[in-house]
Each structure stands twice: as structure tokens, then as C-alpha cells.
Design brief:
Structural class of chain A: alpha+beta
Helix content of chain B: 55-70%
Order of helices and strands of chain A: HHHHEHEEHEHHEHE
Radius of gyration of chain B: 17 Å
Order of helices and strands of chain B: HHHEHHHH
Largest sheet of chain B: none
Number of strands of chain A: 6
Oligomer: heterodimer
Largest interface: A-B, 58 and 70 residues
Number of domains of chain A: 3
Largest sheet of chain A: 5 strands, mixed
Strand order of the largest sheet of chain A: 2-3-5-1-4
């Protein structure tokens, strides 16, 4: 509604308006306002009367409850076409915003997934290209460089498993994990098992022969409920190149020094060659040690196993009132999160739609009045 | 939809409103459009819209008569907009008076008709609402979205204009 400005109406104006009303009502008018009365009556005489045929047709439509015209009907409002389109546009915008917010850079990923997909890391081998991130436990990826054709790729594999079990079974599950490592020819790199009323849990790091990794993981997964599991594969073929080159260089130098030593004539010369031989031997040992470490990373896979007490097994498996309250709080928290996310999407969209609606209303109102002003002096038909 | 459904929870019977306002709405729209054929279409459209929106009527916002004329006004102005985009408006020739009509009245009638045709659109709408639709000042104010005082002032100004035009013609 437009701005309403209250103001007092002049007495003379009010008097004349009253005279107009009286004239239209057929009441007497003051003699000095007779001209105004005549004008009012003349104006009313210009009132158009609807033709009888039109009146009858309109009456019939009223009787029928103003049935909707056909698609080709002239009175069909274009607004009715635009409303579904507007709703469809709003829905599409909502979906786009929802997708953008729930994926990509806006997604926080705060929740812990129950099962993680295998995630691998790869480093590009020298002279080759990077390999796919997820590398199955089967044969190593196909080589891409000419040098790589001579030997298989060196892939380091790792796995991480989180098991959930009743609080009183954490220690036995941890023992089973250790036995599994033994059974598959692996060994325990570290093990930490906590007991008591609080902080119950186990954290174990195993080394399992890479060739038997999948079977070991399958067995460990059977020990308790798997809360999460992930695997990774890292191509470290390129890391072998440097120590191998260092080993070759040092071996060649040692061979040359041995020849020089055999030909040495003086004591000083012999001592100098022996010192250089010692350095070459050290370099050979260091390179071999590096190669051994790398080979172990390929031969044995690292498996991290975490054993946690289950969320509803604090009292040995029975579901208590405390558990119910915790679950209820979790449900409420998730519900609140969903509500906040929904509001984050809906509020801006609603604001935009509201602004658009208000702008359209203002435009239509302005355009209507402009149309009224534009019809000043029509041509005579 | 059968007629009994026209009784509204808002407190009025649509059919009663239709019977009491049909001719007034037609007269108002005809004056606004200056085209009787188009006025028939727009009048029918206005009543159809009112019928479909009848549940949205709120008495606290004004009388049902003012509400109906608000709908009719929008329909008529939409028609004017549409015509503006398509072609210039044509005005129908005025009907000739009867032979028995007094000569003075005939001259007066021509002068009034001419003055009405020369009025700006907003003034002509006010004249139409007052003299052809029979709305009181409060209802005119509600239809135009202004205060009653403002509506009275605007109406008086329009009457003054047409009075002046008639006097000049005389």
C-alpha cells in the first residue's frame, strides 16, 4: 500500500464533495452549488450500461462457477503459466545450492564414516607418470618408463582398521589381533592395550607380509564389528634409484681403490688409499641399509588396528538409560545439524525470492499506473 | 462449481456481491478503457479472478466492494498495458442523443463527454470510480491505496478540472 498521508480537507472542498454525494443520492443541494449538481448528474449520465447479452452470458458463467477456460481461452492469465516456472526455478536453485554446499569445498566431512574406501597415495616414479591412487593388493601397476620395464613396481601398502567391541572384550580382541599377525608370518611393531573402567582400548601396529595382507585384514575384520577400514598403496619405485646409484658408485670406487692399493709403493700412499677405502665401504653399507629398509617397506605392510569399546556396551552389552540418553542427544544433535543446514540454504533463497517478488510487485504497480497515464488522448474509431 | 459454494467464510455471498456490482464494474472499466467490447472481456475476467480469490478476502482490509474494484482495477490496467504494447487505444464514438433530447442538455452532454475524454488517466479513473461505479470516498481510497482525505482531495481536483473544461467548452 502506498504511503498514507493524513491531512485535513479544506472546508470548501468538503462542502462541494458533500454536494456531489447529495446530488448522486437524489437529495437537495444548496442553490449556489446547482452547477456542481448538474455536472455530477451529467457525469453519471455518461455511465455505460452493460448490454443484455453480455449480462446474460456473465450470469451463466456465475451459475457455472466461472469454469476455467480452455487452453486457448483469452482470459487465461499468463501468471498461471509463470507460477510453475517460478517454482521450478526455485527448486532448481535449491538443488544446486544444496549440492554445492554438501559437496566440494563447503563440505566439512566432520562425521566419522563407518567404512572408508581404500585411499592410496602415489608418488610418480622418475621417468614415469603417477599411478592411480587406489592400488589393489594384486600385482603392482604396469610400468610406464623404459627402465621400469626391467623390474616390477615397488609398492608400499598400509591398512588401518578400527574395531568396536564390548568393553569387557577389548583385551581378548587385542590378543586375537596379535595371534593373527603370528599366523600370517607377521610381527608386532607396537602394541598398547589399556584396561580398567576408563580409557579402555587397544592400539596395535603390525607388519604383515604384503602377499598375505588381504587375508590378514579379512581375518582381523572378523574379530569384531568394523567401525572403519582403509587401505593405501604408495608407489616407491623411484626411491630405490638413488641408493642403488650410490651403491654402484661406491662399489666401483672400491674396486678402483683396491687396484690402486695393490700398486701402492709407499706407506703413505697405502694409508691414504686405505682411508678412502673405508669411506667407500661406509657408503656401500649405508646404501645397502637404505635398500634393505625400502625392501622391507615393500615386503611387509603396516597394519594399524584400533580396538574401541562399543557405544552401547558400557555395561557389558545391555542398553541402559544412560545409553538411551546419549542416543537421544545424538539424534537431537543430528537433527539440529540438518535443521541448521536446511536453514542455511532456505533462508537466503527465501530472501531472494521475497526480494524478487517485492520487486515484481513494485514494477507491476508502477507499470499499471504508467499505463493509465499513457492513455491521454485516444484516437477516435 | 455449483452456486452454493459461493457462500464464503469471509462473511459475504459472492453472488450478492456480483449482482450488486456487476453493472458498476462494467461502467468503471468502460470509462477506463473507453472500449465497450474490451470492457466486457475485462469485466468477466475481473469477476472470474474475484471468484477464485474470494477466500482471500479480509474484511478488516475494507469492504468486499472495494476489494472487488481493486481486482477490477488491476485487470483493467493490465489490459491497458497490453494494449499499449500492441496498438494505440481506440475510443468508441459517443452515442447520439435522442431527438427529443433538449438542445441545451445535448450541448451540455457533448461538453461533459469531451471534457471527460480529455482528462488525464488518473483523473478519469477517479471520475469513473465516483460517478460510474458509485463508490464512496472511503472505498475509492481503499481501491487506490491512499487515505480517505487524500482520495477526497484528488477527486475534488478531478471534478474541478472537468468543470473548468466544461465551462471553457460552453
Amino acid at each position: 500500500m502506498r504511503l498514507i498521508r493524513q491531512q485535513t480537507i479544506p472546508v470548501e472542498v468538503e462542502r462541494e464533495l458533500r454536494a456531489v454525494d447529495a446530488a448522486l443520492a437524489g437529495e437537495p443541494v444548496e442553490p449556489e452549488l446547482a452547477e456542481l449538481r448538474d455536472l455530477a448528474l451529467a457525469l453519471r449520465a455518461e455511465r455505460a450500461v452493460p448490454p443484455e447479452q453480455f449480462v446474460n452470458a456473465l450470469d451463466a458463467r456465475l451459475e457455472a462457477g466461472f469454469p476455467k477456460p480452455n487452453a486457448s481461452g483469452s482470459s487465461k492469465s499468463p501468471r498461471r503459466h509463470s507460477q510453475p516456472l517460478a517454482f521450478a526455478t526455485a527448486a532448481a536453485a535449491f538443488l544446486v545450492v544444496a549440492v554445492v554446499l554438501t559437496s566440494g569445498p563447503f563440505s566439512s566431512g566432520g562425521g566419522e564414516p563407518t567404512t572408508k574406501e581404500p585411499v592410496g597415495q602415489a608418488e610418480p616414479a622418475r621417468g614415469g607418470s603417477a599411478h592411480p591412487l587406489a592400488v589393489p593388493a594384486g600385482p603392482a601397476p604396469a610400468p610406464s618408463g623404459a627402465a621400469s620395464l626391467q623390474e616390477p613396481r615397488k609398492v608400499e601398502r598400509a591398512a588401518s582398521i578400527t574395531l568396536s567391541t564390548p568393553r569387557n572384550e577389548v583385551e581378548s580382541v587385542a590378543d586375537d589381533v596379535l595371534h593373527t599377525a603370528d599366523r600370517y608370518g607377521g610381527f608386532v611393531l607396537s602394541s598398547q592395550v589399556s584396561g580398567g573402567d576408563r580409557d579402555v582400548g587397544a592400539s596395535i601396529t603390525l607388519r604383515i607380509p604384503a602377499s598375505r595382507l588381504q587375508a590378514a585384514i579379512a581375518d582381523i575384520s572378523k574379530l569384531a564389528h568394523v567401525r572403519s577400514r582403509s587401505q593405501s598403496a604408495l608407489d616407491i619405485t623411484g626411491r630405490f634409484a638413488t641408493p642403488r646409484r650410490q651403491l654402484a658408485d661406491a662399489t666401483a670406487e672400491r674396486r678402483a681403490l683396491l687396484i690402486q692399493l695393490a700398486r701402492a709403493a709407499t706407506a703413505n700412499e697405502t694409508a691414504s688409499i686405505r682411508a678412502r677405502l673405508k669411506l667407500a665401504n661406509d657408503r656401500i653399507d649405508a646404501a645397502r641399509a637404505t635398500l634393505r629398509r625400502l625392501a622391507r617397506r615393500v615386503t611387509y605392510s603396516s597394519v594399524s588396528v584400533t580396538v574401541e569399546p562399543g557405544p552401547n556396551t558400557a555395561t557389558g552389552g545391555s542398553w541402559s538409560v544412560g545409553d538411551a540418553l546419549r542416543d537421544a542427544a545424538r539424534v537431537l544433535g543430528v537433527g539440529a545439524g540438518v535443521l541448521i543446514l536446511s536453514l542455511a540454504v532456505l533462508v537466503p533463497i527465501s530472501l531472494l525470492v521475497g526480494l524478487g517478488w517485492a520487486a515484481r510487485r513494485a514494477y507491476v504497480r508502477h507499470a499499471r499506473v504508467a499505463a493509465l497515464d499513457a492513455v491521454e488522448k485516444p484516437a477516435t474509431r | 462449481m455449483p452456486l452454493p459454494a459461493t457462500r464464503e467464510r469471509a462473511g459475504f455471498v459472492f453472488e450478492d456481491l456480483y449482482r450488486s456490482c456487476r453493472d458498476d464494474v462494467f461502467a468503471y472499466i468502460t470509462t477506463l478503457l473507453r472500449d465497450r467490447t474490451a470492457a466486457e472481456d475485462v469485466t468477466a475476467l475481473a469477476f472470474e479472478r474475484a471468484y477464485r480469490k474470494r477466500k482471500s478476502f479480509r474484511r478488516e482490509r475494507g469492504s468486499e466492494r472495494a476489494w472487488l474494484f481493486g481486482i477490477a482495477r488491476n485487470a483493467a490496467l493490465d489490459e491497458l498495458r497490453r494494449r499499449r504494447r500492441l496498438a494505440p487505444l481506440l475510443v468508441e464514438p459517443a452515442a447520439c442523443g435522442t431527438e427529443a433530447e433538449d438542445a441545451e442538455h445535448a450541448v451540455r452532454r457533448v461538453a461533459v463527454r469531451s471534457a471527460l475524454a480529455e482528462l488525464p488517466g488518473r483523473d478519469r479513473e477517479l471520475i469513473a470510480l465516483k460517478f460510474h461505479a458509485g463508490l464512496d470516498n472511503a472505498e475509492i481510497a481503499r481501491v487506490l491505496g491512499v487515505s480517505e482525505t487524500n482520495a477526497g482531495t484528488m477527486l475534488h481536483r478531478a471534478i474541478e478540472r472537468i468543470r473548468k473544461a466544461c465551462n471553457e467548452a460552453d
